[in-house]
């Protein structure tokens, strides 16, 4: 039997309506993210490939104006998920808040300097100006201070001058020479490398020298403990699927290139490589390794950084059912 064009159109319309209706019946996960944050690369990939629908939910990304805005929105119930680090999550759980952590990234930066700066080692930073994104309690800054002391090179806090500022400002100051060295978030470090700046020590190498495991996921999705288990599992699975795509398919990065804000091909390739380097190798978190890092952060940053979380609280991590 030959179907008429009208019948074919009716069948297609029915299928489309059924698909849209099914998607609208899925529970919505409201995830707060900085508008220009790198997590949007993964979130766009999830939505571009309908990985949220595949795993039983609809992802709604809520733009956030800053880290404190995300904290307020999350703790106030305006969003279901936020992105933060494992130290913050541990501190919240130690305060009695029922939060859980889904691993997202291991990416960290390092200390970058201009090629003609005359700085090739930590000891050369004496009396120099170090720009630090993230403030005095930035985890990378604390780790690098501890490493420098351990190696007997320099007391970075006492012997060098610190300037704190937003990541884009610190990046521009490093490029212009207004500061002598910079410790920045990983994507600005990637852009600095693409522009020809040298890394004299990475945070990963410093952490490893301190006996820490540099492969632990410091960044993650923070969810409420009372989120339905299938939803938390769905978000975790969608994140892993998106990472698998971004880790192997260059075309997936072409689809989000505008979002990446790469000024040229060198930046684009550096950002791509940096993101891939930060993909956790396993969905399972080594809790002993995280606890060791947390205890060092407690020693270096005190209660202002870790709150009451001097050791890793129980049941912080969500495990992905295989």
From TrEMBL:
Keywords: Signal
Signal sequence region: 1-23
Domain SsuA/THI5-like: 54-192
Top-level division of the source organism's lineage: Bacteria
Cross-referenced PANTHER family: ABC TRANSPORTER SUBSTRATE-BINDING PROTEIN (PTHR30024:SF48), ALIPHATIC SULFONATES-BINDING PROTEIN-RELATED (PTHR30024)
Protein's name according to its UniProt entry: ABC transporter substrate-binding protein
Originating species: uncultured Thiotrichaceae bacterium
């Amino acid at each position: 039997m030959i179907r008429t064009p009208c019948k074919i159109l009716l069948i297609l319309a029915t299928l489309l309506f059924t698909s849209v209706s099914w998607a609208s019946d899925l529970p919505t996960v409201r995830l707060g993210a900085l508008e220009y944050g790198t997590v949007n690369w993964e979130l766009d990939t999830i939505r571009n490939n309908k990985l949220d629908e595949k795993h039983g939910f609809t992802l709604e990304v809520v733009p956030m104006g800053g880290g404190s805005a995300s904290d307020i929105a999350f703790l106030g119930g305006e969003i279901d998920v936020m992105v933060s680090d494992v130290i913050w999550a541990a501190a919240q759980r130690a305060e009695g808040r029922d939060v859980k952590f889904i691993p997202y990234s291991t990416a960290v930066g390092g200390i970058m300097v201009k090629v003609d700066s005359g700085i090739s080692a930590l000891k050369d930073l004496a009396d120099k100006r170090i720009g630090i994104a993230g403030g005095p309690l930035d985890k990378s800054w604390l780790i690098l201070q501890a490493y420098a002391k351990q190696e007997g090179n320099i007391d970075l806090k006492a012997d060098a001058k610190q300037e704190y500022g937003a990541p884009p400002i610190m990046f521009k100051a490093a490029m212009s020479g207004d500061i002598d060295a910079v410790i920045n978030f990983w994507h600005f470090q990637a852009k600095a490398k693409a522009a020809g700046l040298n890394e004299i020590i990475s945070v990963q190498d410093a952490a490893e020298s301190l006996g820490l495991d540099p492969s632990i996921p410091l960044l993650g999705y923070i969810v409420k403990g009372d989120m339905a288990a299938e939803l938390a599992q769905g978000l975790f699975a969608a994140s892993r699927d998106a990472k698998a795509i971004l880790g192997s398919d260059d075309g997936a990065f072409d689809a989000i290139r505008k979002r990446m804000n790469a000024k040229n091909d060198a930046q684009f390739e550096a950002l791509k490589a940096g993101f891939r380097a930060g993909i956790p190798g396993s969905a399972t978190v080594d809790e002993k390794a995280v606890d060791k890092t947390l205890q060092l952060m407690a020693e270096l940053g005190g209660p202002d950084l870790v709150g009451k979380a001097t050791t890793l609280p129980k049941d912080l991590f969500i495990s992905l059912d295989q």
